Amino acid sequence: MPHLILVRHGQSEWNLEKRFTGWVDVDLTGQGKLEACKSGECIKELKLDINYFFSSYQLRAINTLKLIQDTLRDNKKPIRAWQLNERHYGALTGLNKDEMKKKHGEDKIHKFRRSWDIKPDPLSRNNPYHPLNIEVYKKIPAEKIPDTESLKDTYERVMKYYNSDIQNKLIDNKNIVISAHGNSIRALCKFLFKLDNKKISLLEIPTGNPLLINLDSSLEITECKYLDKNRAKDLIVF
Questions:
Q1: Alpha carbons 26 and 126: distance in angstroms, whole number
Q2: Are 23 and 148 in contact (CB under 8 A)?
Q3: Could you list the active site residues?
Q4: 118, 92 in Cβ contact below 8 A?
Q5: 37-74, pLDDT tens digit by residue?
């Protein structure tokens, strides 16, 4: 039976500053590094042989996975995929969430953050925070890089990659760790837990706390739980 472990990166510098991050490439805070190491310890306790490690292209997810692998003493080469990146927050990128709530109202900002198909205004391509102006994304075809995204957009790119590059490995009974982001993990959870568009808006993903999903041979979920029980969010799927 395959095991899929989803880890949202540890606290990032912009998480701490309460800024909309999206595709901007920021690193982990000291707390975020501790969360990543704790994630590794939690996974280590499972005594599983992890066959594949995946991360997004973003530094906070890459370094979270590196700390997890260091803790596991597992030096397999991770697979990096831009399709697992965080949702692009468009013109909200870099802005402070609390300030935006005061300016636009909490309801409007909540819709931008949690609605299924509403997207913020596009980010100007001249903005230094636009992915076209960030070095790590230079290898991605420009036509693939968004100016803004809804959760629906994020879901579509994440699921296309899952179906082409991850699902077949689970069918082959391989154990997988994915280090990614709040919204790319929510996209995976929507599919795996069969959540409707309303329920997915309620799902919160904690930083640096591995979500273990046990699957049967048909890739139906048999069990799921957060490994760090002290920091677990309520799962809304069972």
A1: 19
A2: no
A3: 9, 86
A4: no
A5: 999 999 999 999 999 999 999 999 999 999 999 999 99
